[in-house]
User: Fold this.
Amino acid sequence: MTLYLTKLLVLPLILHVVLILYIGQKLVRARIRSVRSGQTKISDIAVDTYAWPRKVKQLGNNFDNQFQTPTLWYGLTALVIALGTVDFIFVGLSWLYLLLRVVHSMIHIGNNEVPTRMRVFLVSFFVLVAMWLWLAVRLVMLG
Assistant:
């Protein structure tokens, strides 16, 4: 059962990597299009990214977001596996966190409605906090 739960816990991380690769390829394509069309000059973005068009900045910001709070999720998952505390609660919360990251990304690279995006981010943040608290509880329960 533990190996099965571990696989179920790791799978959302793999899917998150797929999300990162998807956003990354969209970003690269958007940047190439912007430069080729003459909308952006290489010399203008060589040191600072201010000159990218709005949509390119949006994609870049979302790509960067995938390496912020999700790093806490990756670290937590590694700890949970190493400590042997994988359970259905971690698995469920991990899948919920992934779902919220996907929704956040869809909003961010879509219509970018900031209030909705912020609400989704906050829910994902609280899910992450709950996961860390659950690890603390599990460690106390184990003695």
The mean pLDDT is 96.
